Amino acid sequence: MAVKLNEVPAVEHLSGGNLACAGCPETLAFRHVLKALGDNTIVINATGCLAVVMQMAVPKVPHFHVLLENAPAVISGIDGALETLGRREGVNLLVVAGDGGTADIGFSSLSSAVERGQDFIYVCFDNECYMNTGGQRSGTTPHGARTSTTPVGRVTKGEDRAPALRKDMVEILAAHRIPYVASTSVAYPLDLMERVQKAAQVRGPSYIHCHSPCPTGWGMKAEETITAARLAVETGSVVMYEIENGVRRVTRKVPRRKPVDAYLAMQSRFKHVTKDPEALAAMQTQVDLGYEELMARMSP
Amino acid sequence: MSTRFWNGNMAAARAAQRARVQLVAAYPITPQTHTVEYLSQFVADGELDASMIKVESEHSALSACCGGSAVGARSFTASCSQGLQLMSEVMYFASGMRFPIVMAIANRTLSAPVNIWPDHQDTLVNRDSGWLQLYATNVQEIYDLTLLAFRVAEHVDISLPALVAYDGFILSHANEPVQEITQEQADALLPPPGVTERPILDPAAPVQFGEVLFPEWYPDYEYKKHMAVKDALAVIEEAFDEFAEATGRRYAPLEADGCEGAEVVLLGMGSMMQTARMAVDDLRAQGRRVGLLTMRSFRPFPEEALKAAMAGVDTLIVLDRDIGYGTAGMVYPDVTRTLYHADDRPRALNCVIGLGGKDITPQTILRCVEIAGEDHGDQTVFWPDARGPAEGIPWTGEVAPAGAGR
Ligand SMILES: Cc1ncc(C[n+]2csc(CCOP(=O)(O)OP(=O)(O)O)c2C)c(N)n1
Ligand code: SF4
User: Fold this and answer.
1) What digits encode the pLDDT tens for the residues A255-268?
2) Domains within chain B, CATH numbers bracketed
3) B174 contacts B139 by C-beta, under 8 angstroms
4) Percent of chain A at pLDDT above 90?
5) What is the ipTM of this complex?
6) Please, what's the largest Cα pairwise distance for chain B?
7) Is the pLDDT of residue A295 over 70?
């Protein structure tokens, strides 16, 4: 069922021109999500960069920018109402949201909508911080990262909560035992589309976590979005995998993982880490541990 | 038409059922909880063809109703107090989106201190959320007003959410005889559910919802919303007229009784107006000329009816079951603003009573009337049922009784 390059629909569901920064991962990924789903889709967009950007690159499908934390509840109402109205069949219901809207303020709304078994696809674009408000930390901000609320100062140096405490939304959603959960990346649009198409075939909730390196927030050049996203996967900082009815499978294998140095070095939010060999080694250890722990959980 | 013996929450739930609501999302909170339970039972019994979204919070309840409304479904929720406050963000969002959602509220005050008993604090702090606000004085009115709220909210010129408020426990838990409306009558009074001229989210005709509106156009959007609230008054009156023809029960946004030339007129909302009627009957039996103004529609605010009722009135007492801390009750300012430029402008006093469910008895009302006859200088706001600084001393608030320290 893999999506092939020559099969990607030429039709565009976003109108041209938008308010995003050059190199924006969210707009790029959203474009492919819509290509995967097609016209018969209703989009609920939680407040965040993408919602603001869509004020101009308006999608050609029904699109509703709601509040920061209530998108899963709104789509629950749509799911139920369309059912009563006899118009539910064949319509894809999609929520798009940032990591803040997903892991933090909108968490109870998401957790409860999936617990109720509502039929919708949720895609989280994880840029590891609140970018619409200028780059504050979120529940998915990695240990050590500099954000405007985890500055590098004389006493503390970037995000300083214990590395293991970072919210792992893929595993949290997997623990809800919903039919389909996947981790993917903006660097691999065909994989992203395949994951979305699979999710669309599921009856009930599905969750896709799309790693989305943000040049503005991470301190990178606009043209480095995809390089960073690839390196995240190649270093094992991000693992692309899916959990389909409980069966776990790595969807993009990394035969030989690269060291994290190059990935971190291209992001100015880690400048203080890459300058400090001890901190850098600690970061490598964290990634190794996380990667191995996750691999051990894969289905045989 | 048959007579039922229902409590207020059942009346609200039955009205929603008669309105053929298609989406219900609500979260339990005392004293509203039964409404959610009754509706769940109707759906479980196949008596109501609606989707019931069993949400995890009031914020999500109203959000789910927004989703339902966004695809054209008739949507209903119920809440009060802490729940309403949690919803507050979504209340403004719903009215801004012009979603005609209807909500039943079993009024309860706000914590802290913890108190589950009624006053109008919860609905009145959401005064400017753009919701129409109707207040019932008895269980029959809860039923009637809830049904009519759908008609007004969905009217093509209005398209605004509406709430029907009734005092928690006093009305939510009290059983009273209710004249039931037949399904045919309800269908004749309301537009068919799920049919709307509003734009909706439909892949066959894509629209964008929830866009940014820049300052250049923002005031125009707000003006339209403001005017829709005002215009709702005529729509309510029309609905009341048609309802009276169908059922024989006649309501008015502001119901005046014996006001012309009265020495004292009492104005208020909710169940206390039934108590006030008893007190007024007593006073009239003693030859006193006392009038009564029952406000059923707080938003829209019945300005003209209020002015018209003031002919020859000496003193108007606004009974507020709520407080705008540091100022006065929250109904009082609207009343005085309306009357400031009126030809017949009575003296207007404010009595803050019944907060947090303190019993409003006929004696409470009589005390309010007494205050109007006493000399309190230029004091306008009174707390007749608060004990004040010294326990047991009859106190009118703000001006401390002689010898009592604050
Ligand atoms: C209730 C509420 N609180 C705060 C905000 C301000 N706010 C808007 S977007 C945002 C952060 C969004 O971050 P994220 O979800 O990660 O999306 P991103 O902008 O990074 O794509 C915040 C805090 C808001 N809109 N609503
Ligand atoms: S800040 Fe990042 S996520 Fe937001 S628009 Fe710019 S590039 Fe996209």
Assistant:
1) 999 999 999 999 99
2) 2-247 (3.40.50.970), 254-392 (3.40.50.920)
3) yes
4) 95
5) 0.97
6) 76
7) yes
Say how many Å lie between the CA of residue A48 and the centre of ligand 1. Answer: 5
Q: Which H helix or E strand runs over A243?
A: strand A241-244
Q: For chain A, what is the mean pLDDT? A: 96
Cα distance between residue B299 and residue B127, in whole Å: 8
Give the tens place of pLDDT for each residue, B122-138.
Answer: 999 999 999 999 999 99
Identify the CA nearest to A124 among candidates A209, A241, A212, A185. A209
Q: Which residues of chain B, if any, have pLDDT below 50?
A: 390-393, 399-406
Residue B388: per-residue pLDDT: 62
Place of tokens 């776990």: A248
Say if B50 is an interface residue toward chain A (CB within 8 Å).
Answer: yes
Probe site for chain A from B49, B51, B75, B99 (most A CB atoms < 10 A) = B51
Are residues A40 and A34 in contact, defined by beta-carbon separation less than 8 angstroms?
no
Specify whether the CB–CB gap between A260 and A142 falls below 8 A. no
CA distance A94 to B395: 60
Q: Can you give the residue ranges of every domain in chain A?
A: 10-296
Strand partners, A77: none
Query: Hey, what's the torsion of the CAs at B135, B194, B36, B357, to 10 degrees?
Result: -10
pLDDT (0 to 100) of residue B104: 98
pLDDT at residue A18 in the model: 83
* Other Cβ atoms closer than 10 A to B30: 18
Is there an atom of ligand 2 within 6 Å of A131 CB?
Answer: yes
- Token digits for B154? 């969905």
Tell me whether residues B67 and A116 touch, CB distance under 8 A.
Answer: no
Query: In this complex, do A41 and B75 lie within 8 Å of one another by their Cβ atoms?
Result: no
The answer to whether the Cβ–Cβ distance between A61 and B203 falls below 8 Å is: yes
Q: What is the dihedral of CA A284, A287, A288, A292, to 10 degrees?
A: 180
Tell me the pLDDT tens digit for each residue of A165-221: 999 999 999 999 999 999 999 999 999 999 999 999 999 999 999 999 999 999 999
> DSSP readout, A184-214?
EETT-HHHHHHHHHHHHHSSS-EEEEEE---
Residue bearing tokens 């009589």: B366
Which pair of structure tokens corresponds to residue B4? 């039922």
Judge contact between A181 and A207, C-beta under 8 A.
yes
Residues in B touching A67 (Cβ below 8 Å):
63, 89-90, 93
Q: Is the pLDDT of residue A61 over 90?
A: yes
What residues form DSSP beta bridges with B24? B52, B76
pLDDT of residue B392: 42
3-class DSSP state of A104: helix
Say what the pLDDT of residue B386 is.
86
B127 CB-side CA count, 13 A: 14
Provide the CATH topology of domain A10-296.
Rossmann fold (3.40.50)
Total H helices, total E strands in chain A: 12, 8
**Within a 13 Å sphere around the CA of A260, how many CA atoms are in the beta-carbon half?**
22
Q: E strand or H helix at A247, and its extent?
A: strand A247-250
The confidence score (pLDDT) of residue A271 equals 97
Cβ count within 10 A of residue B286:
7
pLDDT band at A71 (very low <50, low <70, confident <90, very high): very high
pLDDT at B385: 87
Q: Please return the burial class of B133, using the count of CB atoms within 10 Å of its CB with bins 0-12, 13-18 and 19+.
A: buried
Establish how many alpha carbons lie within 13 A of residue A35's alpha carbon, considering only the half-sphere containing its beta carbon. Answer: 23
**B71 vs A45, A72, A78: nearest CB:** A78
Q: What pLDDT is stored for residue B202 in this prediction?
A: 97
| Termini Cα distance of chain A | 21
